[in-house]
Amino acid sequence: MNESPGVADLLGVLAYAELSAFTRMTEDAATLAPTLADRTALCELAVAEYQHFRLLYDRLRELGADPERAMQPFAGALDAWHTQTSPADWLQALVKAYVGVGIALDFYREAARRLDPSIVELVDEVLTDEGRAEFAVERVRAGVAADPAVSGRLALWARRLVGEALSQGQRVAAERPELALMLVESGANDQAEISRLFAKLTEQHGKRMAALGI
Amino acid sequence: MNESPGVADLLGVLAYAELSAFTRMTEDAATLAPTLADRTALCELAVAEYQHFRLLYDRLRELGADPERAMQPFAGALDAWHTQTSPADWLQALVKAYVGVGIALDFYREAARRLDPSIVELVDEVLTDEGRAEFAVERVRAGVAADPAVSGRLALWARRLVGEALSQGQRVAAERPELALMLVESGANDQAEISRLFAKLTEQHGKRMAALGI
Predict the structure, then answer these.
(1) How do residues A21-42 score in pLDDT, each as one tens digit?
(2) Which part of the chain is the Ferritin-like domain (chains A, B) (predicted)?
(3) B121: which residues sit within 8 A by CB, 6+ positions away?
(4) How far apart, in Å, are the Cα atoms of B63 and each of A47, B57, B59, B201?
């Protein structure tokens, strides 16, 4: 690769995030959706994630990188996140899909602000799918309206999702400092900048929770 | 629907077959693929199955049918097939993908021979993907070359796959006689015609086993 060494890391982590989201959403759709229409809706989202994965995979190849080697260092953290946040029911699955896609999109946007034009283009393509997870909002709000008691339970669940994501994110940032540094303004205090990035992701997460009504 | 009553059944069984194949292949890819490249190859095939599912789903809607209602009667038999044929390793997963896609394509072809032009068009679209499962042939042959002892084991596995498929097929034919009758020349002895159809599917299966070298 001719790019800066962190670019393969960045594309690799996003690629494995999309691939594992595709797998888990497909599984959640099959095991938790109450109807075939619900199952289809979540599968649509899963397949859109797969298409993002393909974009990243092909981009890695174009850059002369080995996509498998680029993804491998992040498989552990992302698989651990999914294992720790395996949804117990359909509403949890929807909240997870919405939260997960949202965090990923924030991450793409941050990356696009710092990086070379090739990433910006790719981000634009991914962002055309931004509205796809909106079906989850509608269904979660309907679920909360039908039984207000689920609201608190789902709020806790969402907090756990983002908490585990930040924890895995810290682990990745520690193991791959180059990747973390690509995402922040380089300055005197890189660790503080990374914390600020995480604070920003958390703030965006709060807005999404408000949208869900939990 | 203005079509003959069996058309929704036919599109429904094919749609659920594609949806469940998509789900199971995605799961097998995540749990059994030895490398991320292998996982990606099987996911590609899974997503192609999903795209066939969407064609069938949209076609059902266009015909004024409820896709969920059309699929529901076949979910039991198809899920049972998958449960009974859960692959134990990567080569079994590849053989299953190849055999399953092959049986489905034979089924599409038989349906196209008997049915109205709307199905024929859809079948043409599906058949453009006919070569997609070929990667499995190459990998299974390589697996057999590396360890000739697996050949017999995989041959037994393939026999089980088709045996369970015929058994579930008989169950569906008994429960939905209209569907079965759409697929055979109507004649004095419908049961014999259905058996002849199954014999034809089995013959095609034999050719695929020869291609796999097992």
Answers:
(1) 999 999 999 999 999 999 999 9
(2) 6-185
(3) none
(4) 25, 10, 6, 28
Residues of A in contact with B27 (CB under 8 A): 23, 26-27, 30
How many other C-beta atoms lie within 10 A of the C-beta of residue A64?
A: 10
**Residues of B near A (CB-CB distance < 8 A)?**
19, 22-23, 26-27, 29-30, 35-37, 39-40, 43, 47, 50, 57, 67-68, 71-72, 75
Task: Output the domain CATH number for residue B83.
Answer: 1.20.1260.10
Instruction: Note the pLDDT of residue B159.
Output: 92
What angle do the packed helices B6-32 and A36-62 form, to 10 degrees?
Answer: 50
In a domain, B158, yes or no: yes
Query: What local confidence, expressed as pLDDT, does residue A112 receive?
Result: 81
Lowest mean pLDDT among A36-50, A115-129, A174-188: A174-188
pLDDT value of residue A187: 59
User: Is residue A151 situated within a structural domain?
Assistant: yes
Examine residue B1 and state whether it is found in any structural domain, yes or no: no
Sequence-distant (≥ 6) Cβ neighbours of residue B19 within 8 angstroms:
A36, A39, A40, A43, B49, B50, B53, B71
Total domains present in chain A = 1
In sign, the C-alpha dihedral spanning A204, A167, A52, B28 is: negative
Check if the beta carbon of residue B185 is closer than 8 Å to that of residue B115.
Answer: no
Treating both helix axes as pointing N-terminal to C-terminal, what angle do A36-62 and A117-127 enclose, rounded to 10 degrees?
Answer: 170
